[in-house]
């Protein structure tokens, strides 16, 4: 579903201080051409008055399931049918828990069960609450059911803490709702993603590796899954859980990654090479731990196969997206790499200024033969969603 113009959007507001930002979201949605109706939970009305939303949207705001006057005008089942899309912003920890349980103990939870429309939630809560296993478990349940999760962002919070749990800014939320990466965009597509580092054994206890955390590849896997794709993640050693609904194959070395990719590549529509594959591996890994007997030691290295380049040059191969981490001359090096590897699209980032490998945020220059787009600094999950929007446009053109 692309774009919010002409859509009926049911904006659900739950009890959190970020509710004040949802007034601006309602205004932006209307400005973008959507029709907006607001439903508030009892707790939400403690933070913002229903009258505020009514004044902004020009429509009555509903807060209760048992409101005879409103039910007579547009009953809750009618309201559920009216919505093309539901957006719950902010979504509190309590609301996510009730939704995950399938409760229908107020109007908004009832609408979530009664509506066949897609549902997006924008969680907002204290960073400790957000990281609590109960909240994360509910989040996984909701994602498995196809609920789209927007944010949250990391940063300063109303309670004085700093960390993840800030609701996305209304403009970013609108961009996400409006973007081509909406639900179903990659439905029926098979996507293979490599992620994380590879570890190349020197001996049974030592290896050559790199500082890739796998965060970007995992964020892409999550984003493609949200877009309806069937996702296989071939992952090097990282400490991240597999995103809900994503199949994962774990590998250690470049050769194992190469094998896992080529065992699965033939039915794949889109290949994303996000792994930081070691270019070289020790020629003769030792079977026993190497003892420190001399002052010097040399390890002879041999080249690993270039997985991305091999996939990109397959006859009838998938659409390919590669990554390039550069420390200098980003644009020139990225263009050269696009040609050298014959990939369809390349996402390049500078790792010279502390951004990239281990950080939660990143920026990307996305290039393809006929164009380029700069994606500004943002959280890696948001960045993955933005990158998918760019990829979807080009992929559609190539298809
Ligand atoms: O050549 P360079 O390592 O900079 O290229 C990076 C891109 O190539 C990434 O997309 C990475 O996943 C992929 N790559 C690969 N196999 C290699 C080396 C890099 O798939 N052996």
UniProtKB/TrEMBL annotation:
Residues 187-392 form the DNA/pantothenate metabolism flavoprotein C-terminal domain. It catalyses: (R)-4'-phosphopantothenate + L-cysteine + CTP = N-[(R)-4-phosphopantothenoyl]-L-cysteine + CMP + diphosphate + H(+); N-[(R)-4-phosphopantothenoyl]-L-cysteine + H(+) = (R)-4'-phosphopantetheine + CO2. Keywords: Decarboxylase, Flavoprotein, FMN, Ligase, Lyase, Magnesium, Metal-binding, Multifunctional enzyme. Pathway: Cofactor biosynthesis; coenzyme A biosynthesis; CoA from (R)-pantothenate: step 2/5; Cofactor biosynthesis; coenzyme A biosynthesis; CoA from (R)-pantothenate: step 3/5. Pfam families: DFP (PF04127), Flavoprotein (PF02441). Its EC number is 4.1.1.36, 6.3.2.5. Residues 191-399 are annotated as: Phosphopantothenate--cysteine ligase. Its cofactor is FMN; Mg(2+). GO terms for molecular function: FMN binding; metal ion binding; phosphopantothenate--cysteine ligase activity; phosphopantothenoylcysteine decarboxylase activity. It comes from the Bacteria. Residues 1-190 are annotated as: Phosphopantothenoylcysteine decarboxylase. Residues 8-173 form the Flavoprotein domain. InterPro entries: CoaB-like_sf, CoaBC, DNA/pantothenate-metab_flavo_C, Flavin_trans-like, Flavoprotein. GO terms for cellular component: phosphopantothenoylcysteine decarboxylase complex. Binds 1 FMN per subunit. NCBIfam families: coaBC_dfp (TIGR00521). In the N-terminal section; belongs to the HFCD (homo-oligomeric flavin containing Cys decarboxylase) superfamily. Catalyzes two sequential steps in the biosynthesis of coenzyme A. In the first step cysteine is conjugated to 4'-phosphopantothenate to form 4-phosphopantothenoylcysteine. In the second step the latter compound is decarboxylated to form 4'-phosphopantotheine. HAMAP family: CoaBC (MF_02225). This is Coenzyme A biosynthesis bifunctional protein CoaBC. It comes from Thiolapillus brandeum. The lineage of its organism: Bacteria, Pseudomonadati, Pseudomonadota, Gammaproteobacteria, Chromatiales.
């Amino acid at each position: 579903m692309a774009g919010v113009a002409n859509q009926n959007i049911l904006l659900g507001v739950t009890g959190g201080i970020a509710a004040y930002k949802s007034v601006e979201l309602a205004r932006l949605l209307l400005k973008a051409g959507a029709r907006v109706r607001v439903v508030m939970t009892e707790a939400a009305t403690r933070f913002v008055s229903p009258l505020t939303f009514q004044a902004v949207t020009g429509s009555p705001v509903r807060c209760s399931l048992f409101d005879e006057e409103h039910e007579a005008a547009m009953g809750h089942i009618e309201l559920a049918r009216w919505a093309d899309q539901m957006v719950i912003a902010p979504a509190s920890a309590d609301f996510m828990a009730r939704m995950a349980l399938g409760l229908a103990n107020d109007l908004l939870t009832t609408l979530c069960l009664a509506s066949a429309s897609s549902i997006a939630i924008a969680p907002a809560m204290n960073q400790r609450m957000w990281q609590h296993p109960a909240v994360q478990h509910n989040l996984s349940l909701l994602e498995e059911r196809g609920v789209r999760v927007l944010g949250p962002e990391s940063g300063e919070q109303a309670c004085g803490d700093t960390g993840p749990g800030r609701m996305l800014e209304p403009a970013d939320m609108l961009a996400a709702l409006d973007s081509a990466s909406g639900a179903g965009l990659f439905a029926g597509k098979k996507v293979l993603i490599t992620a994380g580092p590879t570890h190349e054994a020197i001996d049974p206890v030592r290896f050559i590796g790199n500082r890739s955390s796998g965060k970007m590849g995992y964020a892409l896997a999550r984003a493609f899954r949200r877009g309806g794709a069937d996702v296989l993640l071939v992952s090097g050693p990282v400490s991240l859980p597999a995103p809900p609904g994503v199949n994962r194959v774990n590998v250690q070395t470049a050769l194992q990654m190469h094998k896992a990719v080529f065992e699965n590549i033939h039915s794949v529509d889109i290949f994303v090479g996000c792994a930081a594959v070691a270019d070289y591996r020790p020629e003769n890994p030792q079977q026993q731990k190497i003892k420190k007997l001399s002052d010097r030691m040399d390890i002879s290295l041999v080249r690993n196969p270039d997985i991305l380049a091999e996939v990109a040059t397959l006859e009838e191969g998938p659409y390919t997206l590669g990554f390039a981490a550069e420390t200098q001359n980003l644009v020139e090096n990225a263009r050269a790499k696009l040609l050298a590897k014959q990939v369809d699209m390349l996402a390049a980032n500078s790792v010279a200024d502390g951004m990239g490998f281990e950080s939660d945020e990143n920026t990307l220059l996305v290039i393809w033969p006929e164009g380029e787009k700069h994606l500004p600094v943002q959280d890696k999950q948001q960045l993955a969603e933005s990158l998918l929007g760019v990829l979807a446009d080009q992929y559609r053109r190539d298809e």
